[in-house]
Amino acid sequence: MLNSVIVVDDEAPIREAVEQWLSLSGFAVQVFSRAEDCLAQLPEHFPGVILSDVRMPGMGGLELLAQLQARDPDLPVILLTGHGDVPMAVDAMRDGAYDFLEKPFTPQTLLDSLRRGLEKRRLVLENRRLHEQADNRSRLEATLLGLSPSIQTLRRQVQDLAQLPVNVLIRGETGSGKEMVARCLHDFGPRASKPFVAVNCAAIPEQLFEAELFGHESGAFTGAQGKRIGKLEFAHGGTLFLDEIESMPLAQQVKLLRVIQDRRLERLGSNQSIEVDLRIVAATKPDLLEEARSGRFREDLAYRLNIAELRLPPLRERREDIPLLFSHFSRQAAERLGRSAPVLNGGQLSHLLSHDWPGNVRELANAAERQVLGLENPASVDMPAGQSLAAQQEAFEAHCLRSALSRHKGDIKAVLNELQLPRRTLNEKMQRHGLIREVFLPDNGDPL
User: Fold this and answer.
1) Which residues are CB-contacts of 173 (< 8 A; sequence separation ≥ 6)?
2) Domain ranges (residues) in the chain
3) pTM score
4) Do the first three CATH levels of 146-313 and 316-440 match, i.e. the same topology?
5) CA angle, 288 then 290 then 295, to 5°
6) Is the predicted pLDDT of residue 380 greater than 50, yes or no?
7) What does the alpha-carbon distance between residue 415 and residue 435 come to, in Å, rounded to a whole number?
8) Angle at 70 (CA atoms; ends 64, 75), nearest 5 degrees
9) Do you find a cis peptide bond into 249, omega within 30 degrees of 0?
10) Please, where are the H alpha helices in 74-148?
11) Smallest Cα–Cα separation from 349: which of 372, 374, 369, 321?
12) Are the CB atoms for 320 and 434 separated by under 8 Å?
């Protein structure tokens, strides 16, 4: 909280008097008689001001200042000095001290200095927070690639939810990036330094599910040799990602619900209750509530998991992202395989954009790798059949626009000359077909 003050002084009467003044004035005060104790207990990103005497046994105020400056140069430190220490205190301010007060000082003088220091600290921490948010946005854009409105919305949702201590349910088709989104929710949140534990519920045999999730003690069942920490306990402090949650056996759903409610678990073969602090991110293809209505999933657990829901759009709903993604995956594969990344021509790009990609981003990444290996030509992807004449006309118009934009590398003037269209008409058609000029610019596939 931004009214926090730490007081460091070896003289008990001064500590007690200052603590009383500040507490009565609404400050949250913590006192230390030794600078070493202050350093040992100072939290990271302390949201307040340090008030320290200069002359103390052991580590003095100037050495404490130097140590604090090494940790955080923007942390306000106010020094308390005797009359003979004033020149020294002036030098200390040049070295980074925020202010100094000559003893004896009045309560009002102290309060004025502290309030100025706290305001400075508030501005510094707010500026850091804004910079961190901007950095996270850039990193998130480099991870969840795409320019389509749906992916931009998804990034905003992920950035907001990453900071919140709520369980999240991710819905999306196979290959749409559910685990990547779960990983982003972990990496861009306060649990990033703790474990991210992924469990595919469909891949665990039912008879092993409880031991896998909850762990077991030695001899808990036939073959249980030694103690084993389960996934829930291993994820303590971090995030547990439960993929294909709809495949979890009903018997284990009851036990998972109990863990979510009580934040405690028991290993198989043990009566000891173990506290767990974790965030659960679950992923599913079907509607979990519909599964519950059909009796295949517990409704109470569905609601517990679905505090917030993220829907991942299939690739066919964000076709304008395909060139960017294909280029990115091609360069990744080329770097990994020691080959050059191929350049798509207009016809190849048109065929990529016309494919429905039932395997979504995973299928696109595989196609890019096969092309780098020379095993597949994107032009071999089939055009959709069975469409009405109007739909085919729309598709042909979109193909012509994409080809021209690709051929001229996003040069709008060149596209206008080739297609002999007014600028306003081209803009309207590009908007209708979801075409974005930046996608076709040279090196558009570099992660941001």
Assistant:
1) 285, 312, 314, 358, 360
2) 4-127, 146-313, 316-440
3) 0.66
4) no
5) 95
6) no
7) 13
8) 75
9) no
10) 86-94, 107-143
11) 321
12) yes
User: Do 173 and 314 contact (CB within 8 A), yes or no?
Assistant: yes
Q: Tell me the sheet residues that pair with 49.
A: 5
Which amino acid, one-letter code, is at 434? Answer: G
Cα–Cα separations (whole angstroms), residue 145 to 149, 151, 301, 344 = 12, 8, 32, 19
Class for domain 4-127, per CATH? Answer: alpha beta
The type of residue at 135 is D
HEC profile of 145-203: CCCCHHHHHHHHHHHHHHCCCCCEEEECCCCCCHHHHHHHHHHCCCCCCCCEEEEEHHH
Q: Which CATH code for domain 316-440?
A: 1.10.8.60
Residues 6+ apart with CB under 8 A from 175: 359, 360, 361, 362, 363
142: left (phi over 0), alpha (psi -120 to 50) or beta: alpha
**Please, how many CA atoms are within 13 Å of residue 393, restricted to the half-sphere of its CB?**
4
Q: Identify any residues that bridge with 50 across adjacent strands, giving them in sequence order.
A: 6, 77
Task: Quote the pLDDT of residue 383.
Answer: 46
Count of residues making up the chain: 448
User: How far is the C-alpha of 297 from the C-alpha of 304, rounded, in Å?
Assistant: 12
Taking domain 146-313, whether its CATH number is 1.20.120.910 is answered by no
199-241 per-position pLDDT tens digit: 999 999 988 898 899 988 876 666 667 678 899 999 999 999 9
The DSSP string of 282-334 is EEESS-HHHHHHTTSS-HHHHHHH-SEEEEPPPGGG-GGGHHHHHHHHHHHHH
